[in-house]
Amino acid sequence: MLITAQILSTILGLFFLVTGWLKTSGHPHMIEEFDKFQYPHWLRVVAGVLELISAPMMLAVWWSPALASLGALIISAVMVGAAYTNFVKRPAVFGWGTLAILALCLAPVAIHWTETEQTLHHILSVVFPPSP
Which residues are listed as membrane-spanning (predicted)? Predict the structure, then answer.
């Protein structure tokens, strides 16, 4: 099961590197999609940047499963927005496809949950130190 999660994270990481690059570079298809849905272009750039931040984290699954899980959680937030768009502004089949990708992103998180939870707890304790 562990190797499956690693392979899945690698494939998704590569996928989101490409989609993140297409969004941030202003690829005509991405501009057309955001125009069609009447979303501001800053949202396209933010989504692309989040994908470009998350993708390398997901690719790090071979060395740090917790880091990959954190990347998957970040990209999952983007995917929730994408699922909303695809259910509301397109035929439902697009929404179901997006939910499938979201589920694939969350699968490695579930598999590596114990390590992920410890890492998130550590990050939160650094960002928000306990009061004396």
Answer: 6-22, 42-63, 69-87, 94-113
